[in-house]
Recover the amino acids of this structure.
């Protein structure tokens, strides 16, 4: 009788605390012992082979376009954008031998429209490069993602902690991963009405008083509910924003993307997260070479990076207004700004940010760009379409 | 010595006084003058020139009086000498006596009576009503004088006339005369013919000599050399006491076995004495046994906050750490900042790196045998210390005088209190505590039976920011009965228990609140015999059996809201039994061999469920073909095999010898950890149907040379070692609560080789040692499947492969009360896996790592400095105290502990982490009372 083991080994996220909470203890001891963390420049690592990197998934939502993007790994010191892998033959095959070929777009992207994967079927990715590389992913099942129940927030330690909650009523989706895009509206302390343009002082158009910043999550966040009696994710911490952050200046928004994974997909992202996020404390495991579920059947040393999956992504957006928050001191307050009164000649010479012109003094009120031009803080002045 | 000297001086004076004591009462001639610029000696000469007085004192006392600088105030006008001297020596330990012949005696502590007792010549005629004060004072003040044993001749055995030809055996204990503590490793020998032995861990010796007159000599660390004149008639027991060498405070190491390096059988053995342990500077000021062991050649550690030892290329779990015969599973406190051994409880520690005696077994690489002190059998004394983070107190004394004694020690930390003082709220809500408690009782039931009991417990607890709490604890108990059959045979019966457990709990989020625990219990019974048939042979043999019980993981909900599903990894059981015999055979004075064999038998016992994997395929969950359940105590898997232990010594000259050894060791329990250092959440795993026991072979060769006076020792040892059935881990392996750990580990084999050079200077003002080691440790995976192979199945360096290692431990005694120590350590950085490429996945940059351990962190280099200041050497005072002031990492070098990369805001940054980035000063106060 062949009997499968009934319990998977304890996965990281659940007990991630064991490793990640030892880390602060160590830092505490390091603090007591006068330890330190210094930047480290690795020795010149001889350029290794460049490997294929596969991004994207087969979207099972009916009527959507699936995009697979191919690129190459780079040397650590390489500052250019990754080289795209063009003119490859990319196809998705079912276990029943049906083959759907993807159409090449620009910059190493390959797309497929009009094919909806069927739940219960198994699919694999097949890539043939112009250099003769021939790669297959493992056959993977379709795993639909249950909807996000809520994205909640609460005030913790003078900041905002944002958590996600979900559950699968069918108790099927046991492994989850989340990404998020955060956006925030903010203003600068002073309104600039004038600007220097072509050695002349003219009215500023449009205004640079109000901006919107945005950022994508970089950490890999995974959670497994296999240790729980129900597939319930309760208050999974996504991000923490300190109260002094610019992000909470006017209004903050987060778009949470939830992805249900297979166990092997979870293992992959979990390990990837471990070696890129949690490495360095004394008790962390050693990093290792992690590739994914795509391989070359003929040359195992020709690595492929990435994990092919079939499924959906569920999203939920949350807004937080500054009026909902305590009055935290903002880093960008007027008290940190110096106002200087300059003549026209001085303004043209020093090119500060101009607030306004005083007709009595016949001088300009000016300040540093930080205080009156919101674009210096990384945002754009276009209001995002989704902004409430 | 000063006492003896004074006594002799006194006796000789008394004998010459008797005839002249009866002079008439004479006036005392006064003296005058300004003596303030004179030395004491000049003062004496001047007085002797002016008056009939003649002075009697030892030159040393004269110097001491001079040193008190009292002469400066000495201007006298027509005063009696007695008054002048009293003024000069008032409140000092010196006493003045002047007899009728104008002889001035200056003695320390006790004055000389220049009068004989009243009625000395008229026995019984003394006036009954008046007490004879002179006599009474003399009698009460008399120090109890033991018969000086060195001068006496002891007759041993039943007296015969004439002395029979042939040999006889003397055996007995060597003890400290002050505390009754047995002395380990004392050399007991006669010089002609050259026959010698050393006392064992009980202070017991047995030596066979030709019958007749001998002078038996004894030498030991920190004790006065002594000798006994004996006439040996037949076999008998003979106990010897040795006295503390007060002068030798802080004297370093191994004086006892001055030529052991060359003449002894052992190789690859290091003995550390508590005196040298206390002298080596440590990070937080606390004398630390494991830190000192780490400075020995052939011993490495992964990082400086770790107490883990890597001995000659072995992993940290391959060391048998014994504390009075009970195994210690986790030897660290506070994440390795301290070791679990209280320095006040330790007598000595011996590390066997090769030629491991056949009485030890169960671990591959080394044995660290830590012995506690026996309590003082004569009086109650205490000692303790206060350091930066810890405090400790030890009490000892007799329960039944000269028969039963106890020693109890407690050490704890006040780091918790320190955390509470920090302003940061997350630190204030944190906790870090540990303590260890030791009790050791020795009971000498009769001459032939001694019983020892040791109890030990250590606990650690810490918690960060009111969240996850960690606790772990070691517990051991040892009961030992030593029975002497006769001078040639004695036995030791030992029962021991070792327990280690940890638990982790979290209740921050009530839905996920959990408890996780691990426990191991080891129970052992053994009988060891030592047999000395004649001086050419020393046999030991014995039998032992050990039962292991491991609860690999128990995971459960904490609180009613928790949705955590309980998960219990089934308990594992194993029984390891062994039988051994070893013999040291001195073939001739030049050549000795020591051979031993240990046969060990191990069974993994039910109840348990065993997964069977498809043959020839990697052990993965997908390849499970069957599951077999075994009943209670049914053997699941049995392994057994011989362990050979062989060594030989060939004496090249009186100061040089060549030694060689081979030993095989087997290990049935291993630690499962994929972190680089010992962490409190590491688990232990018994060999079972899927995980085989480890087997190691080691060949070693050494050359030993001392200089003529045996003050400088030099040695070179080379070794080659192979290790089979090691385990390594798949990338990102999950080890906690894993029901089938074999799917996350890969089989590996290892080889290690190296050369160790050591120069030691043991005596004199400057002492210490310098060692250089070149060594390599390589591993390779041997599993069937290609997916298992780390680095394509090629050899790769282990995480503790540090080829070059230089250590200097130096101590310089500026005076008897003040010494300075300097340590210097250099080693190659340990291997790490570095990122070699980057790529973008799901919108964020990620790293592709190299093959395992292909790069190294920067080299390690550290200097430490310490000063030891002893209190004064008065024999009688309230408490003896000493101060240790140390600076760890004197140059403040940022030694990389680890190097890591993080993707932060889309960029990849490399960091190096140093644990001690600054010089760490510390002050420790130690006391004895």
């Amino acid at each position: 009788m062949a009997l499968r083991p009934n319990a998977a080994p304890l996965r990281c996220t659940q007990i991630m605390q064991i490793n990640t909470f030892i880390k602060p203890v160590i830092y505490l001891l390091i603090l007591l012992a006068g330890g330190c963390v210094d930047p480290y420049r690795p020795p010149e690592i001889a350029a290794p082979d460049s490997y294929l990197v596969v991004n994207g998934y087969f979207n099972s939502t009916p009527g959507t376009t699936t995009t697979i993007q191919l690129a190459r790994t780079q040397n650590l010191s390489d500052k250019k954008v990754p080289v795209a892998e063009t003119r490859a033959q990319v196809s998705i095959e079912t276990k029943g031998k049906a083959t759907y070929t993807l159409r090449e777009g620009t910059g190493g992207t390959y797309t497929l429209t009009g094919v909806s994967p069927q739940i219960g079927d198994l699919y694999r990715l097949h890539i043939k490069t112009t250099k003769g590389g021939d790669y297959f992913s493992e056959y993977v099942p379709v795993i639909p993602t249950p909807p996000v129940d809520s994205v909640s927030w609460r005030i913790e330690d003078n900041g905002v902690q944002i958590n996600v909650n979900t559950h699968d009523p069918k108790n099927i989706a046991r492994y989850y991963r989340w990404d998020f895009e955060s956006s925030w509206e903010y203003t600068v302390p002073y309104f600039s009405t004038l600007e220097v343009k072509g050695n002349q002082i003219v009215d500023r158009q449009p205004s640079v008083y109000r901006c919107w910043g945005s950022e994508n999550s970089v950490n890999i966040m995974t959670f497994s509910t296999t240790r729980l009696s129900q597939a319930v994710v309760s208050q999974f911490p996504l991000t923490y924003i300190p109260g002094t952050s610019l992000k909470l200046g006017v209004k903050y928004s987060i778009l949470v993307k939830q992805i249900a994974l297979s166990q092997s997909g979870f293992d992959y992202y979990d390990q990837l997260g471990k070696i890129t996020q949690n490495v360095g404390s004394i008790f962390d495991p050693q990093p290792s070479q992690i590739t994914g579920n795509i391989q070359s059947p003929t040359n195992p040393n020709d690595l492929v990076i990435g994990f092919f999956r079939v499924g959906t992504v569920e999203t939920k957006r949350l807004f937080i207004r500054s009026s909902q928050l305590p009055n935290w001191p903002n880093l960008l307050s007027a008290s940190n700004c110096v106002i200087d009164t300059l003549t026209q000649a001085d303004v043209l010479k020093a090119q500060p940010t101009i607030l306004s012109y005083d007709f009595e003094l016949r001088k300009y009120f000016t300040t540093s760009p930080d205080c009156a031009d919101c674009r210096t803080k990384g945002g754009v002045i276009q209001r995002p379409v989704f902004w409430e | 010595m000063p006492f003896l000297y004074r006594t002799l001086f006194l006796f000789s004076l008394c004998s010459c006084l008797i005839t002249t004591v009866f002079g008439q009462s004479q006036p005392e001639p006064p003296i005058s003058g300004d003596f303030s610029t004179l030395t004491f000696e000049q003062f004496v000469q001047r007085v002797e020139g002016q008056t009939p007085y003649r002075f009697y004192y030892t030159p040393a006392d004269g110097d001491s009086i001079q040193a008190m600088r009292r002469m400066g105030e000495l201007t006298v006008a027509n005063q009696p000498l007695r008054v002048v001297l009293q003024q000069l020596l008032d409140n000092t330990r010196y006493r003045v006596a002047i007899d009728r012949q104008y002889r001035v005696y200056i003695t320390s502590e006790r004055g000389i009576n220049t009068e004989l007792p009243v009625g000395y010549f008229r026995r019984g005629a003394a006036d009954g009503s008046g007490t004879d004060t002179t006599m009474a004072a003399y009698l009460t003040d008399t120090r109890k004088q033991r018969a000086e044993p060195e001068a006496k001749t002891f007759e041993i055995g039943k007296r015969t006339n004439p002395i029979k030809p042939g040999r006889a055996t003397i055996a007995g204990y060597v003890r400290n005369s002050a505390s009754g503590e047995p002395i380990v490793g004392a050399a007991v020998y006669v010089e002609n013919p050259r026959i010698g032995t050393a006392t064992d861990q009980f202070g017991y010796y047995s030596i066979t000599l030709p019958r007749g007159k001998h002078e038996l000599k004894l030498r030991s660390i920190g004790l006065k050399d002594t000798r006994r004149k004996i006439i040996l008639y037949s076999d008998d027991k003979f106990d010897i006491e040795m006295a503390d060498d007060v002068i030798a405070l802080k004297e370093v190491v191994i004086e006892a076995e001055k030529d052991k390096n060359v003449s002894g059988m052992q190789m690859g053995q290091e003995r550390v004495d508590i005196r040298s342990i206390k002298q080596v500077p440590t990070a937080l000021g606390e004398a630390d046994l494991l830190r000192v062991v780490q400075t020995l050649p052939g011993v490495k550690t992964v990082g400086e906050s770790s107490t883990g030892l890597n001995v000659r290329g072995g992993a940290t779990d391959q060391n048998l750490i014994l504390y009075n015969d009970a195994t210690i599973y986790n030897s660290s406190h506070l994440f390795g900042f301290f070791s679990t051994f209280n320095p006040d409880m330790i007598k000595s520690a011996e590390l066997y790196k090769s030629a491991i005696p056949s009485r030890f077994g169960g671990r591959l690489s080394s044995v660290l045998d830590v012995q506690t002190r026996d309590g003082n059998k004569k009086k109650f004394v205490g000692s303790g210390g206060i350091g930066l983070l810890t405090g400790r107190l030890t009490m000892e004394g007799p329960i039944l005088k000269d028969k039963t004694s106890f020693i109890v020690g407690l050490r704890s930390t006040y780091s918790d209190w320190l955390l509470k003082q920090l302003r940061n709220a997350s630190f204030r809500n944190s906790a870090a505590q540990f303590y260890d408690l030791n009790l050791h009782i020795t009971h000498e039931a009769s001459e032939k039976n001694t019983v020892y009991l040791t109890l030990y417990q250590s606990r650690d607890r810490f918690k960060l920011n009111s969240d996850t709490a960690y606790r772990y604890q070691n517990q051991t108990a040892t009961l030992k009965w030593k029975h002497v059959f006769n001078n040639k045979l004695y036995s030791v019966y030992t029962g021991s228990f070792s327990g280690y457990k940890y638990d982790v709990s979290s209740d921050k989020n009530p839905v996920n609140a959990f408890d996780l625990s691990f426990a191991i219990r080891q129970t052992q019974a053994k009988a060891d015999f030592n047999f000395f048939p004649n001086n050419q042979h020393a046999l030991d043999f014995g039998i032992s059996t050990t039962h292991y019980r491991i609860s690999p993981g128990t995971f459960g909900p904490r609180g009613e809201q928790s949705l955590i599903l309980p998960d219990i990894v089934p308990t594992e059981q194993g029984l390891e039994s062994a039988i051994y015999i070893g013999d040291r055979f001195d073939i001739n004075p030049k050549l000795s061999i020591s051979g031993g064999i240990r046969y060990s038998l191990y069974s993994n016992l039910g109840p348990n469920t065993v997964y069977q994997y498809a043959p020839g395929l990697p052990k993965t969950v997908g390849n499970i073909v069957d599951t077999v359940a075994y009943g209670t105590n049914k053997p699941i898997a049995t392994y057994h095999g011989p362990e050979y232990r062989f060594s030989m010594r060939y004496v090249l000259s009186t100061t040089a010898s060549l030694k060689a050894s081979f030993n095989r060791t087997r290990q049935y329990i291993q630690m499962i950890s994929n972190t680089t250092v010992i962490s409190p959440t590491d688990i232990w795993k018994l060999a079972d149907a899927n995980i085989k026991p480890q087997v190691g072979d080691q060949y070693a060769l050494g050359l030993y040379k001392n200089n003529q006076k045996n003050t400088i020792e030099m040695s070179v040892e080379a070794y080659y070692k192979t290790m089979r059935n090691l385990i390594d881990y798949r990338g990102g392996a999950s080890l906690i609560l894993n029901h089938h750990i074999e799917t996350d580990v890969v089989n590996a084999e290892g080889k290690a080789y190296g050369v160790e050079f050591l120069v030691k200077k043991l005596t004199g003002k400057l002492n210490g040692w310098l060692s250089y080691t070149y060594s390599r440790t390589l591993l390779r995976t041997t599993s069937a499947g290609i997916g298992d192979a780390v680095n394509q199945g090629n050899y790769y360096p282990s995480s503790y492969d540090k080829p070059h290692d230089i250590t200097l431990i130096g101590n310089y005694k500026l005076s008897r009360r003040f010494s300075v120590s300097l340590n210097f350590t250099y080693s190659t950085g340990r291997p790490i896996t570095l990122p070699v490429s980057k790529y973008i996945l799901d919108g964020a940059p990620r790293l592709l790592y190299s093959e395992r351990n292909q790069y190294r962190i920067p080299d390690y280099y550290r200097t430490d400095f310490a000063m030891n200041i002893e209190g004064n050497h008065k024999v009688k005072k309230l408490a003896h105290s000493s101060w240790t002031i140390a600076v760890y990492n004197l140059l403040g070098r940022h030694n990389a502990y680890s190097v890591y990369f993080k993707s932060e805001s889309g960029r990849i940054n490399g960091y190096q982490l140093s644990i001690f980035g600054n010089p760490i000063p510390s002050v420790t106060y130690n006391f004895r009372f």
In short: Chain A touches chain B through 87 residues (CB under 8 Å). The helical segments of chain A are 12-33, 263-277, 344-350, 369-372. The CA atoms of residues 27 and 35 of chain A lie 8 Å apart.
